[in-house]
Each structure stands twice: as structure tokens, then as C-alpha cells.
Amino acid sequence: MTILVTGGAGYIGSHTCVELLNNGYKLVVLDKLINSKLESINRVKKITGKDFIFEHIDLLDKKALERIFSDHKIDAVVHFAGLKAVGESVIKPLDYYRNNVTGTIVLCEVMQQFDVKNLVVSSSATVYGTAKQMPISEDAPLGVTNPYGRTKLMVEEILRDIYTSDNNWSIALLRYFNPFGAHKSGQIGEDPNGMPNNLTTYITQVGIGRLNEVRIFGNDYPTKDGTGIRDYIHIIDLAKGHLKALNNVLNSNGIEAYNLGTGRGYSVLEVIKTFEKTAGISIPYKVVGRRPGDVAVSYADPSKAKRELGWEAEKNLEEMCRDSWNWQKDNLYGYLNKK
Ligand code: NAD
Ligand code: UD1
To answer: Does 128 participate in catalysis according to the annotation?
Structure first.
């Protein structure tokens, strides 16, 4: 069985490639390497001891995509390729619509052309906007607050229309909560270009001294310690969720959304404290004002994925902190690996 992985050199893609290879899938991976490095592909090969084809192409390059589909008998696609920085999407909305929405349309056109209709897609908990009820289940109202989120929602809606037009499609929309952690080998992990946006990458970079302190965005939320609560999920659990979703997609037709989260929320302070304890280092922080657009609390009801995919998260926050620290301390400059 051969799977095309778009955006497979990135953070979630590279960890998912490891799980897919370890479970006997053959891969063709494409990536434009705009937010990732070729070295992550080399390391996936090293960790698994398995080889696969890597295509350095842009998803929007339809001719190149058609060549891939005619050179290989692709059975299914796991689609990660996309831009993901919320702040940047506000400044450059057209880049986000073109890359994330048009990219998915081009992919689906070529899939249709080659009669490949099995698709697992990266969506995001961002499609729930400011959810009123916790935990968030898949049937909660959808709504977005920024162009990045809107691209994810648009892609979900476009894919629903495609399925309505042709019931032979089989599509899983995976709504990730907050990925954290790294592969236990310490060989692959999150390596953002430029300033980190997420709390977890901020903490690890403060840990190695690349940044001075974590700024906590508000301690006046209606939560137990006043800081924001999120559902952090270990990247390996997330990668395994793709494996389960892919197996399901290959054996059924339909379109379904699944939350991939743990169902448990932690506050910013709890994450910092757990990281300090696990890594045995101190993480300086200061409280600043709220970040516009942030919600107080967000955590998943992951029961649908358990019921229908047989998947549930197994790793806890300590393991997320330990594994991401293990990756970051040995790769101070990520895949560039300058010491
Ligand atoms: P990432 O930036 O590490 O990986 C995305 C990869 O896609 C990168 O390697 C990038 O080079 C590639 N890419 C982007 N546009 C491309 C194009 N036009 N053609 C070819 N390659 C292209 O991000 P990630 O964290 O691994 O996220 C993967 C997916 O999951 C994205 O769609 C993202 O929106 C979604 N997601 C991520 C998070 C998160 O917190 N990391 C949360 C929810 C959803
Ligand atoms: C972010 C994205 C969202 C995406 C989600 C999952 C934004 C606005 N939203 O949301 O689209 O779906 O990740 O990956 O970027 N925090 C700090 N200091 C920091 C960074 C964050 O205190 O330097 C706090 C935030 O206020 C929040 C928590 O930490 O309470 C987590 O923030 P972050 O990692 O950015 O994730 P989300 O806000 O969930």
C-alpha cells in the first residue's frame, strides 16, 4: 500500500511518516521545505531504517503532482502541507488562501483524475473558534476568528461538497488540539523557522537559552490559576491517530471529523512547572497582557475517535515535556544542529 504524504518534512508529518513506515506502508513524501528541512527526511529514514521517495515540490505545481500520481500507484493521501501561523495569516491572507485552500483543491483535482479517493487531512481545533462548552465535541458550532482558521474551515467544507458529489470518496478530517513532544530517539522534533508562536516551542527555546523568558499571556482568565488552559497531545499519539484514521479511510467511504486530543486541559503555569520538573531546569517567565483572540479554555471530547477509530491518547504531559526537551537540548538549532 503506497501513501502520498504532503508536507511530510514538517513537525507532524515527519512523526507520522515514522509511524506509517513502521506499520508497513510505502511512502512517497512531497514537501516544498518552506517551514522544514531536508534533514528531517534523512532522520525519518535513519530512525525507521526504511527508504522512500522524497519529492521537493510545491503542492500547487499540478504538473509535478500529476507526474507523481502517474509514476506511483498511490492508494491514499495524508495531507499536511500548509501554512499555520495565525498572526502571519492576518497580515498575508492571500498567501494562506492560496497555499492552504488552492493547494487542497489542486490535490483533490489530481486525486480525482487518478481515481484516488482516500484522504486524511490536517484540520485544527481552531475551527471551533470560541467554543462555549467544554469539552468540545465534533458537533459543536464551528466559527473562526482569523484567516488561517478560515482556510481550515473552508477546506473542511470543500471536502464535504466533494463527498456529496461523489460518495466514493473516503475522508477523515483530523482536528488537532495542541501537539507537543518529540520522537523518543531525540532525532526528530519541532523546529519552527524564526520566532516560535506556540507556548511549547517557546518554553523549550527558553530552556536552551535561545530566548530569555516566557511571556504568559494573561493570568486573569476564569481558570484555576488565571492562565489559559489547553489540551496538549503528544506528537506520537497524534501520529498514531493518523495511522488509525488512514486504516479506517481505506476500509470505508464517507467523510468524518475527529478530535485528536487527550480530553484533559492544563494551564500555562502547569505546563511551565511540569517542564521545569521534568527537565530539571528553571524556566523564567513574566505575566503580560492577554493575547488578542485567545480563548480561556479549550479541550477536546476525544470519544468519537475512540469509538470509531479505536484511538486514544496514551502519553501524559511529563512525557511530552521529557521528549521535547530531549530533542531540543541535543539539537540546539534544530535540524541545522549547530552546537
Ligand atoms: P509544519 O510547518 O511543520 O509542516 C507543514 C509542512 O508543509 C512544511 O514542511 C512545509 O514546508 C510544507 N508545505 C507548506 N506548504 C506547502 C506547499 N504548498 N507545497 C509543499 N509543501 C508545503 O506544520 P505542522 O505543525 O507539521 O502542521 C501540519 C499541518 O497540521 C498543517 O496543515 C497545520 O495547519 C495543521 N495543524 C498544526 C497544528 C500545530 O499546532 N502544529 C495544529 C493544528 C493543525
Ligand atoms: C494556537 C493557534 C491555533 C492552533 C493551535 C493548535 C494562535 C492564536 N492560535 O492556539 O490556531 O489551532 O495553536 O496548535 O496562535 N501562551 C503564552 N505565552 C506564549 C504562547 C502562548 O502564555 O508565548 C499561552 C496562550 O495564551 C494559550 C496557551 O499558552 O493559553 C497555548 O497557546 P498556543 O501554544 O499559542 O496555542 P493556542 O492558543 O491553543
So the answer is: no
